[in-house]
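Moderator note: this is an archived Q&A kept for reference. The question asked for a predicted structure of one protein chain; the sequence and the answer are reproduced below.
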Amino acid sequence: MTFEFLSHHEDAIAIATGSSPSRTRKYQIGISQNIEEIRGLYCIEGFIADIDLEGNITGGYPRWDGT
């Protein structure tokens, strides 16, 4: 994935999620492996969410320092 779009649109927000739990985990691993480079360019935030049996999304932002 290229981040050229974000370079031209500094107020843009990118959301990375997978089509399955394993794909989402793959994205998380990729971000973690490149966190120093990414953190130097972008503000990284996380959101922990869950979907209940009725389809409602619940969650919040963790206290995460990026390490």
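Archived answer notes: Helices lie at 4-8, 21-33, 35-41.
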